[in-house]
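Hi all, long-time lurker, first post. I run a small reading group and we've been trying to get comfortable going from sequence to structure in the token notation. Rather than ask abstract questions, I figured I'd post a concrete chain and ask someone more experienced to write out its structure so we can walk through it together at our next meeting. Sequence below, copied exactly:
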Amino acid sequence: MRRWRWRWLWVCLAALLLWAPAGADTPRLQVLPETTRLELGEPLILRLRAEHSAGDLFALDLSALDRDFDWRWEQRSRGSRGPDRVWARQELQLRLYARRSGELALPALALLDARSPPLTVQVQAPRRLGLALRAGLEHDMPFLREPVLAWLEIDTDHDQFELREPPRILSRAVHVEALGRSRERLADGRYRLRYQWLLTPLYPGELALPLDWLAVHDFQRQGVQLRYLAPGLRAQVRELPAYLPVDLPLAPIRASQRLEGGDPQGAEPLQGEPLLWVLDVRGRGLSPRALERWLARELTAPEGLRLHAPVIRQLDGPDLSPGERLLRVEVPVTPRAGGDHALPGLRLPWFDTGTGRLAVTELPALALTVRDPLRVLLWRSALALLGLALSLLMLWGLLAWLCRLRVRRALRAGIRQAADAPAMAAALRAVPGSPAALGRWLRTQRAGPALTRAVRALEVACYGQAGADREALRKDLLAALRGHRLVLPGGFVNPSR
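-- Answer (accepted) --
Happy to help. Here is the structure in token form:
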């Protein structure tokens, strides 16, 4: 009896030892979300806890979360590991961002024999920020190498937010050129942040362009890291005709030209005087290298003109449309001969993607008249001599007029001061170059009828009767001289002699 009693005691003790670990050390995997209701863009903190498991929690396959969430590790910790290779406790903290709104599932996870129960999370639309994301392409069937405008619009209820990093297009199938961003207030009071890119497809066929996640900093919610999945872009890229050159532009081209240098007042340039032929070319997808190759084929120096190597610069302008480039070409020109010349006309081909045909932008020939500097010098010298001669003639005429004026004034003063007829006759003879006889004086002066009558009366008074009226003679003589132009045969003389 004593032997069976000890046997039952050992059986009960063994059963007790076996039963205790079965309840306390059972492997367990728990998924503990911080919340099950959140807005799109807000982080979901998820804690994974494994107890009494020989599996490695840090190597757990979490690919089941990729369908609805973007996740990353944040913290991890584990306790000691016993001699049986079992971890007493392991913890892993994840930060999840939902890819869309709605009811999303957190699937069951398995770590060896331990499984977590599935959970659901309610993700609502972003109401606090009032966010709306839209992305698009200028057209979704571009040709290969055709520049296409792409855009992303972020509409919000307020403007107190900023992206931590500018969005990126994650694709190697296109060449991406960032065109910057703009911010505006809409008519309904909301705010819009717009990003633009110029995309150049590199391969034909279907094109999928995913955009990176947007990390948004909302200044009204400090400490909350918001992330949103931007909508992707899709396009069908068409093949180009095989006959098109590789560097042919695939967008409309506008061009203008002008000639600078020479006389700033617009006079014709001189032979040997440097000029500058300026071409402004604008369009999408233009590159200085392609334009340089085109100029090397098209530019030919006409006879009488020398064209130097062109210089190409890219300019900015407020009137440029998104994705459009303005290239300025400066070609130095040296006229080598005088006469009429013309800078060559230019044809800029491009492919019209709307019609699928080649198009051409034409610049007409630019007429140019060059003057010979020797002829210009001779002409200017002749004009200078002519001007000098005219100036001397004008000076001569002015001096003659002044001399005649002085003689006329002296003659009239002498007649007024004369006491008798002989004194008046002496005043007439005092005119420079006048003869002594009054009759010859009349012929010298080419006198008219009135002056002839007055001088004849004066001559009769001098040699005839002594009772002539002196004042009447003086009055008639002054009146006749008033309408007479004196003749000075001796040229410019001093009337005081």
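A couple of things your group might point at:
The mean pLDDT is 82.
The CA atoms of residues 247 and 290 lie 6 Å apart.
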